[in-house]
Amino acid sequence: MSFQTGHIGLNVTDVEASKEFYRRVFGFTVARESEEDGRRYVFLAENGTLKLTLWQQSEGRFATARPGLHHLSFQVADLEAVRRAERVIRELGAVVHHGGVVPHGEGATSGGVFFEDPDGIRLEISAPDGAGDRPAPTTGAPTCGFF
Fold first, then answer.
1. In this predicted structure, what is the pLDDT of residue 72?
2. Which residues contact 96 (CB under 8 A, 6 or more apart)?
3. Which region ranges are annotated with the description Disordered (predicted)?
4. Which of 54, 62, 124, 145 sits CB 3.0–4.6 Å from 120 for a disulfide?
5. What is the rounded distance in angstroms from the CA atom of residue 126 to the CA atom of residue 129?
6. Per CATH, is 8-56 categorized as 1.20.1050.10?
7. Residue 78 carries which DSSP code?
8. How is residue 123 annotated by DSSP?
C-alpha cells in the first residue's frame, strides 16, 4: 500500500479573504465554491487537480501552541519561483518569518520563504536548491520547525 497526500482542508475565518490570498500567492483557480450561509467553502485547484479546500467555520487566529497542524509546505522547481511568490506575499502584507528566503538548516542548499496566511496558518514555499548562500536562522535545528 502506498499513500500520498490528496488535498489539504483548512478552516478559515473569512473564506473570501483566504480565497484571494491563496489564489494570488499560489496561482490556484476556483474549482467549486458555496456562498450559502453557514456552509461557505471554496475548492482550489492547480491544473485541474484539487489542492486546497477552505471551510469558513472558525474564529480567531491559528493556535500554534495547541496540538495539530504545525505548517504546510509547498515545493516549487527553483529559487526564482520562491522569490516570485515572496514578492506577492509581501505585496499582500502577510507576516514573513526569518526576514525572507533562508535555507532549511545549516549547510543545506534547499530553502524557502516561511510566512502566514490571513488566519495565521504557517506556510512554507521552498525549492530543492539555491538557498545555501544564506545563513540558517536556527542553529542546530531545521528552519521549518521553529517559526
1. 96
2. 86, 89, 90, 113, 114, 115
3. 127-147
4. 62
5. 9
6. no
7. S
8. E
Domain ranges in the chain are 8-56, 72-136
For the record, the C-alpha cell of 4 comes out as 500520498
User: Are 103 and 69 contacting, i.e. CB atoms less than 8 angstroms apart?
Assistant: no
Q: Going from the first residue of the chain to its last (147 residues), give the mean pLDDT of each consecutive group of 10, the final group possibly shorter.
A: 93 98 98 96 97 96 94 97 98 97 94 98 97 89 92
Q: Which CATH class is domain 72-136?
A: alpha beta
Residue in the block written with cell 525572507: 100
* Residues shown for the chain: 147
Question: Looking up cell 499582500, which residue turns up?
Answer: 92
Strand, coil or helix: 90: helix
For the chain, the maximum distance between any two Cα atoms, rounded to a whole number of angstroms, is 50
Tell how many helices (H) and how many strands (E) occur in the chain. 2, 8
Cell readout for 51 is 489542492
Distance CA 126, CA 113 (A): 6
Nearest one of 55, 71, 85 to 120, comparing CA atoms? 71
